[in-house]
Amino acid sequence: MNESTNKVLPGLPGSAAKMRPDVSPTVSATASPATSLRSPAAVSLASRLLMVSVLLLLLIAPFVLPQALVNAAIQMLIAALFATAFNVLAGQGGMLSFGHAAYFGIGAFATLHAMNALGGAGLLPTPLLPIFGALGGCLLGLVAGWFSTQRSGVYFSMITLALAELLHALAPHLTSVFGGEAGVSSMRMPAWGLSFGEPMHVYYLTLAWVLASLGALFFFTRTPLGRLTLGLRENAMRLKFLGYDVHAARVMVFMISASFAGVAGGLLAMNNEAGNYVLFDVRLSSEVVLNAYIGGTGVFFGPALGAAVMTFFGYAVSDLTRSWLLYQGLIFVVVMMFMPNGLSGVVLWWQRSQRSSAVLARYAAGWSLGALACAAAVVFSVELLQRVLGSDYQSQLVDAQPWPAITLFGRDWLPGAVSTWLLPLLLLVAGGLILNRVTRAWDALNEEEAA
Questions:
Q1: What is the mean pLDDT of residues 4-12?
Q2: CB 144 within 8 A of CB 102
Q3: Do 161 and 98 contact (CB within 8 A), yes or no?
Q4: What distance in Å separates the CA atoms of residue 15 and residue 43, rounded to the nearest whole number?
Q5: Residues 332/294, Cβ–Cβ less than 8 Å
Q6: Which of 276, 270, 259, 269 lies closest to 177 in space, CA to CA?
Q7: pLDDT at residue 325 above 50?
Q8: Exposure pattern of 319-334 as b/e (b: 16+ CB <10 Å)?
Q9: How far apart (Å, rounded) are the C-alpha atoms in residues 425 and 423?
Q10: Is 400 left (phi over 0), alpha (psi -120 to 50) or beta?
Q11: Alpha helices (H) along 296-323
Q12: Measured at the alpha carbon of residue 44, what is the angle toward residues 43 and 48, in degrees to the nearest 5?
């Protein structure tokens, strides 16, 4: 696991002040309640309670969520595993792959063929079939990893992209393997007294595999090879001078990452009971990169958090607006500019900060208010422009006639009126002023304590 959280306060505006090791973590007798420090034991206890709470929520989710949200939760779990597997290669090993959808897709097809061949019975019943996804991803990862890890940096990224695009181009023609345009379909068969015909059964099957896989990947980060992976990222040349076979180590890390990406693909195949060559599309490879970096590649659970949040974002927003991909891109840009350690960096900022929760909550609320005001301005402008520039609205325009009103957020707005565009401008200015004021106050607090 990366320990980059010791460098700077991650993720928030004006948070460039370094964590100060000279400050005692104990609470002094004269410390005020507003600035009292939290002990490491309290932070560790809070982390454990948070993990237990998340686990309990995952266990009870199917009983409290409607069926549509249960299906969304399955997709979130699969995306979380896929992003975590990708992060073993990119975040841990420093090898940024632009073609990781290849191993995800191969895992899906391997599982579908196993479902058709074995019928979910015998020594490998339905709950164990994602093993074939792992095997498929591992074998392809061995071949692709041997080639791509011959180079590093941008050359490695381009080779992984080229290999994935090659597979994407060949898949429609290999109908016996990938099914052509129609793809490959199958059915989940009953096993262990479960029909696997209900979303709840599929949810718990997916949850069990995701938790087991995340546990195995976390254990891998604690092994000697997992520690060596950090050396591959930081200084591969030094490892070579120390006598390590850098190429072999890279191939092994690549195979591990591809194997668990294959498990994620196998779970998707079992959930959808079908798959086609679209699974190899570059869009899926780009999504896992965005999800991992939005969540934060410097923390083990960061990519899982980012993938879950962005998957739910797509599920919730895609039905509301056609511009949801634009918003997804804007979120990535904002996170990379102002929260370079991702969403998990905010969690670690809260845990590692030497100030009390009340102080952190006050500043976090100020930043959130300013960000919401700016977001409201952007959403209003994008949605109004989308409608104004749409062909349906343009066909209503008549020369020398005022532009018709547009219904948005329950009100009619005149695109030609200055007051219509004044609202997002005021929201943007107000949000910027709030962010600037809170940031200045935070920086002043840091300077005051440092003096």
A1: 36
A2: yes
A3: yes
A4: 20
A5: yes
A6: 276
A7: yes
A8: eeeebbeebbeebbee
A9: 5
A10: left
A11: 302-317
A12: 115
SS3 243: coil
For every residue of 179-230, DSSP letters joined together read -TTT-EE--PPPBTTB---SHHHHHHHHHHHHHHHHHHHHHHHHSHHHHHHH
Point out which residues pair with 408 in neighbouring strands: 411
- State CA 405 to chain mean position distance: 39
DSSP annotation of 89: I
- ∠ Cα 330 284 277 (to 5°): 150
How far apart are alpha carbons 26 and 104 in whole angstroms?
47
Query: Which tokens hold the place of 25?
Result: 């973590």
Confidence (pLDDT) at 10: 34
* Beta-carbon contacts of residue 195 (< 8 Å; ≥ 6 apart): 201
Q: How far apart are CA 190 and CA 180, in angstroms?
A: 28
pLDDT score, position 43: 56
Distance of CA 339 to the CA centre of its chain: 14
Two tokens at 194?
A: 């479960």
> What ranges make up the beta strands (E) of 373-446?
406-408, 411-413
Handedness of CA 69, 73, 76, 78 (dihedral sign): negative
How far apart are the C-alpha atoms of 33 and 440, rounded to whole Å?
22
C-alpha angle with apex 207: 204 to 210, nearest 5 degrees?
A: 150
Residue 379 pLDDT exceeds 70: yes
Span 362-369, mean pLDDT? 89
Answer yes or no: is pLDDT of 335 > 80: yes
Please indicate whether residue 7 or residue 155 has the higher confidence score (pLDDT): 155
Distance CA 327, CA 382 (A): 9
Has residue 12 got a pLDDT over 60?
no
Report how far apart, in Å, the C-alpha atoms of 60 and of each of 50, 54, 57, 213, 306 are. Answer: 16, 10, 5, 20, 22
What is the residue whose two structure tokens read 């509301």? 320
Evaluate if residue 208 carries a pLDDT over 90: yes
- Average pLDDT score over residue span 100-104: 93
| DSSP annotation of 38 | P
- Read off the tokens for 18: 């370094």
Whether pTM exceeds 0.85? no
Query: What are the structure tokens assigned to 344, written together?
Result: 């998990």
CB atoms within 10 A of CB 40: 11
> Structure tokens of 450?
């440092």
Residue type (1 letter), 57? L
